[in-house]
Amino acid sequence: MALVWERPSQEVQSVIDTNLVGTILGSQIAMRGMQAQGSGAIYNMEGMGSDGHKRAGLTLYGTTKYAVHYFTECLAMEAKDTGIIVGALRPGMVATDLIRDRYKDRPDDWQHAKRIFNIIAEPVEQVAPWLARKILENRKNGTILSYSSSLKIFGKFLRSPFVKEEVFD
Fold first, then answer.
1. 81 and 95 belong to one structural domain
2. pLDDT tier for residue 33 given thresholds of 50, 70 and 90
C-alpha cells in the first residue's frame, strides 16, 4: 500500500472527485428531482473511515468517506421537513474485484490478505439484498444502515478456525 505522500496528484483528485464530489453532486441532483415529485430517499455510500476509524494506507479513501458521513448527516438535517429521507449505507467489506485488483502485482501479499478477507468480507449477493430490504423498510431520516458490525466481525474471527468461508478463491 502506498502512503498518502506517495500517491500521484491525479489519484488524489480522482478519489476525492469520485467519493466526495460525486456524492455531493449526485445528492444535489437527486434532491432537486425528489423535491419536484414531493418525496424520495437518498442513501449515500459510506465506507472505511466514515465512522472515524483510521488505517494507515487508506488515508485518502478514509478521509473522503469521513467527509461523506459529515455531508450525509448535514443533508439529512437540511432535508428534515422536505418529506425526503436521507441516510447512509455501510455495507462493510464486500468481496469485489476492486479488492482483489489492489493486489494484482503482489501475489504473495494477496495470499496473506486473502486469508483475512475470507473471514471479514461478505459476498455482494448477500449484502445487496439485505441493504435493499432495509432501504425499503426505513422511514426514518438520518438512518445509517450497517450490514456489518464489530460484534459480527468478532464472531466471524471466533468461528474462522471451524468454518471456512471462501468469498475469494
1. no
2. very high
CB neighbours (10 Å) of residue 136? 9
Please list the active-site residues.
61
Q: What is the pLDDT of residues 71-96, one digit of tens each?
A: 999 999 999 999 999 999 999 999 98
pLDDT band at 1 (very low <50, low <70, confident <90, very high): low
d(C-alpha 78, C-alpha 126), whole Å = 33
Q: How far apart are the first and last CA of the chain?
A: 22
Rounded to the nearest 5°, which phi and psi values hold at 44? -95, 145
DSSP E strand stretches across 36-162: 40-45, 84-90, 94-95, 122-123, 144-146
Distance separating alpha carbons of residues 103 and 87, to the nearest angstrom:
32
Q: Which three cell numbers stand for residue 135?
A: 432501504
Q: Note whether 54 and 80 are same-domain residues.
A: yes
Same domain, 79 and 106: no
